[in-house]
């Protein structure tokens, strides 16, 4: 047996031993977050729980912390290769952890605890970033803008799912809040004196429906009306909508942003209403997963008895996409039994603290840790990631 193989086996054993040692704490964290869901940007108790566990494991919290109140930055070790672990912990209104972010959080923390056990040996720094509000405004993007990913060599997290998948992409996305403002008038006595804001929105929706045929392939435009008048006998003074745009990549997203904005402007022009378009959160870029790290993760998961599929198809949208355009990243899906339920349903949330979900937490933690370790001891890969 070669020295390299022996060393790799020793690292694997150390990672497994660390996960065994911290298993109760890791699963306790998953269950606590699952039982106590908090909405985007309000994850105070979840962040406190994660920080407490990291502190108990000897992680130090950076002197400068993110401005988002439920974000944090912590690290262990002093090696040149900085492994970033992204911890998501926000839930959805009314249905709790229907996207499995308690599994996401616990698996990332588990990977960090495992890697801390070999940080000196591998010459790495384990950097854990608490990244709030993935379901809404994109905490990772805010943290990129504040420089918290500047020293990161590679970034990792796993996402809860019904099946194990690596290599997937995501759709670029942005959200707008649209408001038309006109002038009220009595709908029967003096309709000519009004400016109908709802008419503006109807014209805009019609223009969008016609424009969809000419949008780039893969473009998705979704609209809901949030405000459309208060009384049938009053010309609506205000009309509002939420607009969500998705595209295969950020460049295509910018193309459809221009087309959609023209449709919205058309509604204002036709009705004489004023228009205000307010971005809701940060635009999300497409996810680009690193092939080497994905393959290293897949091989590690085989050791846990998992058959992990490689599938490049896009799955929803995530602010991890923005991270992946900045540094080599992975965002594999880790599967557990969900009874046929799909993400963002109460049924999916109900399975988040089961024995199957617990196994997913520990397996994903192992897979992420092993992928980082593989890159750290592979000279060409280490040079690439440091370059």
Automatic annotation (TrEMBL):
Gene Ontology MF term list: dipeptidase activity; para-aminobenzoyl-glutamate hydrolase activity
InterPro entries linked to this entry: Amidohydrolase (IPR017439), Bact_exopeptidase_dim_dom (IPR036264), Peptidase_M20 (IPR002933), Peptidase_M20/M20A_hydrolases (IPR052030), Peptidase_M20_dimer (IPR011650), Xaa-Arg_dipeptidase (IPR017144)
Hydrolase as UniProt keyword: yes
Stretches assigned to the Peptidase M20 dimerisation domain: 176-265
Protein's organism: Arthrobacter cupressi
Cellular-component GO terms for this entry: cytoplasm
Family: Belongs to the peptidase M20A family.
Protein name as it appears in the record: Peptidase M20 domain-containing protein 2
Alphabetically ordered keywords of this record: Hydrolase
Record has Hydrolase as a keyword: yes
């Amino acid at each position: 047996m070669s020295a390299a193989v022996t060393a790799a086996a020793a690292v694997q054993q150390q990672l497994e031993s660390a996960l065994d040692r911290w298993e109760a704490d890791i699963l306790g964290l998953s269950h606590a977050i699952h039982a106590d869901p908090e909405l985007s940007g309000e994850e105070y108790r979840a962040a406190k729980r994660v920080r407490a566990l990291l502190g108990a494991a000897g992680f130090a919290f950076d002197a400068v912390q993110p401005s988002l109140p439920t974000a944090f930055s912590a690290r262990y070790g002093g090696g040149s290769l900085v492994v970033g672990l992204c911890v998501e912990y926000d839930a959805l209104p009314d249905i709790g952890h229907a996207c499995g972010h308690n599994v996401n959080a616990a698996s990332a923390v588990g990977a960090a605890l495992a890697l801390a056990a070999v940080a000196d040996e591998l010459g790495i720094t384990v950097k854990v970033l608490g990244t709030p509000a993935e379901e809404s405004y994109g905490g990772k993007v805010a943290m990129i803008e504040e420089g918290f990913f500047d020293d990161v060599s590679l970034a990792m997290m796993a996402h809860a799912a019904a099946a194990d998948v690596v290599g997937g992409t995501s759709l670029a996305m942005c959200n707008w809040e649209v408001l038309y403002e006109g002038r009220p008038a009595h709908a029967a006595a003096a309709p000519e004196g009004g400016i109908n804001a709802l008419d503006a929105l109807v014209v805009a929706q019609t223009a969008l429906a016609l424009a969809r045929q000419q949008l780039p392939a893969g473009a998705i435009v979704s609209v809901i009306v949030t405000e459309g008048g208060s009384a049938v006998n009053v010309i609506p003074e205000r009309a509002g909508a939420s607009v969500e745009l998705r595209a295969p990549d950020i460049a295509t997203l910018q193309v459809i942003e221009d087309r959609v904005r023209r449709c919205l402007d058309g509604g204002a022009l036709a009705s004489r209403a004023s228009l205000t378009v307010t971005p809701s959160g940060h635009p999300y870029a497409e996810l680009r997963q690193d092939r080497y790290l994905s393959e290293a993760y897949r091989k590690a998961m085989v050791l846990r008895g998992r058959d992990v599929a490689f599938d490049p198809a896009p799955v929803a949208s995530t602010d991890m996409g923005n991270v992946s355009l900045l540094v080599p990243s992975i965002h594999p899906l880790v599967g557990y039994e969900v009874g046929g339920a799909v993400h963002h349903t109460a049924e999916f949330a109900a399975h988040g603290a089961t024995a199957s979900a617990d196994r997913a937490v520990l397996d994903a933690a192992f897979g992420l840790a092993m992928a980082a370790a593989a890159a750290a001891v592979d000279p060409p890969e280490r040079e690439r990631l440091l370059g």
